Amino acid sequence: xxxxxxxxxxxxxxxxxxxxxxxxxxxxxxxSEVAQLAxxxxxxxxxxxxxxxxxxxxxxxxxxxxxxxxxxxxxxxxDWIDANLWALGDNVAKRFDKELPFLFKVLSVxxxxxxxxxxxxxxxxxxxxxxxEHYIDPNHKPEMALALxxxxxxxGFRPLKETAVFIKSVPELKVVIGGQLADELVATxxxxxxxxxxxxxxxxxxHLMHCPSDVVQTQLQELVxxxxxxxxxxxxxxxxxxxxxxxxxxxxxxxxxxxxxxFFNHITLQPGQAMFLGPNIPHAYLSGDCIECMACxxxxxxxxxxxxxxxxxxxxxxxxxxxxxxxxxxxxxxxSTDGKAEMFDPPVPDFSVGKYDLSDVDGMEYTLQSVDGxxxxxxxxxxxxxxxxxxxSSIVVCRGxxxxxxxxxxxxxxxxxxxxxxxxxxxxxx
Length: 430
Fold this sequence. Notes:
Helices cover 28% and strands 27% of the residues. The protein has helices at 5-11, 33-38, 77-83, 90-95, 121-130, 160-169, 171-177, 179-190, 194-209, 213-229, 234-239, 242-251, 312-318, and strands spanning 13-17, 19-21, 27-28, 51-52, 54-57, 66-67, 102-109, 115-117, 143-147, 151-157, 264-269, 274-277, 283-295, 301-304, 334-335, 341-344, 352-357, 365-368, 375-381, 384-387, 394-397, 402-405, 411-415, 421-426. The protein is elongated, with a radius of gyration of 23 Å. The model has no long low-confidence stretch (mean pLDDT 93).
């Protein structure tokens, strides 16, 4: 390939080698988008019956990116940034203590991830101080998921009227919530103020999550048996979200998380749609492939659909119980000035994400505008060459290529295929 990678590296544009995580919930073998993207790296050896769950692109110590460079093959991106702080830009370097503030990922989800929420920055500091074994850093973890394939998840509390209908039509749900609390919720939905209804919702959800596990298992088994005994009763399945319940119970048999589907919005993002998960918003990813970006943290408070540590008291006390219709959970994008990119800019300074679908670009060249902060890009479809004005050096990229761009650098791309789709995570610290 046309080289001089060393010149590009000095200028702050270079390819990365990133790490794959093989968590059990990942899609298997080449069914996984993560595995397909990783396969472009000659060092990657696919094992076709193992799960490939996440591709991590960033400096997180659990799976740090390395620079692909012939002269220095093992240099960590984080070490290069330490020696080239200009690449973060002034705002990011000041605000985030000279660190890359985001972690960029691709996820391929085969089985549900835990029901969870992420703490605020202040709450994270308290959790970390009190229980550093389970909360290993003091940072918040806002995150955004952008669908690559239809991507299914639970997100935020449903409109209360919907939960009230489920309480009336799913008797087992009423038992695990507790009859009196369930009746109170139904009554407040029909009459009283939103504040009282949210208090009733919190009581019901907290009681469900603390329900003794033998009661949960018995009631879940009754509900599952009823559904399995009437496979053609479309009305029953609709009234009780039967297909989703059976699927989650097959993955996490007897788990209290199976009942959470009656409290949370069930959303399927279409490719290109996004959801943003701010602090204290309950969520669980269920299936599909997505691009994900988050603050550089691993803080998660879990309470269901998981074999991991559950912190049910903390989760129930911290959640945002505001009910919202599912359409309000879809995060809007704005068009870039040239109309070729969609920008997803959440209300946090840690990260933004751009989606560049360059299939319709006139001619074959396109300029990725500079931003006042660091970027990591991944190519999802197509081939291109990254050109350098100054000295004629260039980098060839294709599906699965990942590259870093330092602050203030614009990158000219020359497409070598008609279709080109890439995603760019970046932060300006604002």
